[in-house]
Amino acid sequence: MRVLVAMSGGVDSSVAAALVLEAGHEAVGATMKLWGGSSDRGCCSVADVDDAQRVAQQLGISHHVFNFSEDFDRHVVDPYVAAHADGLTPNPCVECNRHLKFDRFLDRAVQLGFDAVATGHHARVATGPDGGSALLRGADQAKDQSYVLHMLGQKQLKRVILPVGAMTKADVRARAAELQLRTAAKADSQDVCFISRAGGREEFLRARIPLHPAEVVDAEGRRVGTLPAVELVTVGQRRGLAGSAHPPGERRYVVDVDVPTATVRVGSLDDLLVSEVPVGPMSWVAGPPYPDEGLEVQMSAHGQPEPARWSPAGRVLVGRPVRRVAAGQSVVLYRGDAVVGGGPALVA
Amino acid sequence: MSVEIDQPVYLDWAADAPRHAATAEAMRPWLTERFGNPSGSHQVARRARAAVDDAREVVASFLGAEPGGVIFTSGGTEADNLAVLGPLASRPGAVVVSAVEHPAVIQAARASGRETRIAGVDALGVVDPGSLKRVLDGEVAVVSIQLVNHETGVIQPLAELAPRIRKWAPRAVFHTDAVQGAAWLDLAHVTAGADLISISGHKIGGPQGVGVLAVRGGAELAPITHGGGQERERRSGSHNVAAIAGLGAAVAAIEAEQDARRATVEALRDRLGQSLIASLPEVVWTAQPAVRAPGHLHLRFGGLESEALLFKLDESGVCASAGAACASGALEPSPVLLAMGVAKRDAGSSLRLTLGPSTTEAEVDQAVAVIAKAVRELRAEVPA
After folding, report:
1. Chain B neighbours among A 59-88 (CB < 8 Å)?
2. What is the residue range of A237's domain?
């Protein structure tokens, strides 16, 4: 096969490229330039492109840079900003996978005559007895990225190779060291690539949308404090609420955020527990689950899976009460190790 | 698999011109048995100094400057930076650049701390005299207008612009970035109205890592690099003797061959452009009918993405460029084309093909076949 490897300049995609070659495929590397603004980290800096280029040289494959920064702005950054303005907690990595890595990049690969794309994600693609593709958790539980790939359907999966998904991160690093790749000891990327460590989310958003101070109220509507920006508050958050405890010393959590009135309601952990989560729109790896099928749900990148069922009315019914998830976060259903599908949590 | 075709068709001369045979010959002694710092005071140093001064005279004659006006730099970018920033130490006032300058000029102007004014261009990329007049006045310190555009190859009418600059900005130093023109034009003649001229070694068959800023008349320049005071205290740093010797040889070769190569390369360039236009629909030849350098061909392929096209050409052994790239190597919408009023999407479908004296007819025909095939394949795959 001819395989286009998405090389971010990190260790996982470096080893992915090496494994594609080892499997006997023809490999070409490509790095996406996604973010045109300033950032001191992430998948789009010149230093990362340099690393990807050097690894490609070491592996003896050619390497190209694709400038998808306009698509990234349109499909990831702008919606991220707009979602915050609406009081949601978006997941930009999910949108990047949906619109960039497995859409724009995949389309470009097909246009250029490639049979498949490979990435360095820790997840596995398997072919079922019916010939359909399944998306499975990565072998390294701590590094599993199947959650952020839940939007992949049959159309994408049949053209996707995830070579490091069957390895532990330690094995990936060992492999990179063995191949003497300069990315072998490079730190994992974390958080949102277009937001700088120095300025953080607040500075990024403040430069783009007006942020409004929030009134913090308790269950009875009594004003118990303030927060600097309602747009930055996430359901379930405890940070910044120390002064609002009533009685003093009790743990308080954000249980509701109302952007139009700039009001944040706080309550106890009990007030945060729910037994169903409205979600949508859903995408399914190979179609929706069976009625009343026993599944598991995961509601954050490394969250604990909980027993759950899917209600076709657009709700995930959780086996025991769980903490509410912020609207905008991905809610992903699993059948054992296999992703069934997922979508963003809606405002309850 | 790394794409390495044995005999690539090299059509990226504006990025780097293959070394002239005379260049390597002139450099070889300075990379082998000869050495010496030209600033020293013994025989080994004197021999090195003689090599530098030999090259200095050749370059001075080519640029229509006195040998004492030739400043050897690390390349075109440093020469442009020195030209924009150097005069400001002794002159208050704004910096004026055209909208289609190379980043080495525009970014130097922006970093100068002075007001940067931009003179607009017309749809062909030629500096608009009306726009130029609006940004010039008695307070302007430096005016920088290129000779040949790096992307489109358009030649600016410097002979017409120079007297206007003198009149509208009487206190200004006038610099021209002649990096892309040096391979093709009689610089002493066509840049006659300029006070400062930059050229780069590797665009004319000389070595990489060497360039020249020539100073005509008495324009005063403060250094931008500080140290031992070489080059009459205008550019510190030990001389790169091998590269300077190579540059001198390349300039001498150019002077001897320029007239002959102009006509042959232009004919090949036209063959390339006309064949592509004849074999493909929706191809636009940028900046036609402006006066262009003979080696430059800039085409736009109606919405096709340059990145995809260059990828296909690379796979088929044709080396070309889209014109503008950022530090990561990613293609950026060309500020040159945007300044000419080309729509962003259209600008993103650019292909710059640049030819040189060793380009052959067979290569041109092969490039036509490869490009036409790639464009057809990509258009068939483009999602509507």
Report:
1. 60-62, 64-67, 69
2. 210-267
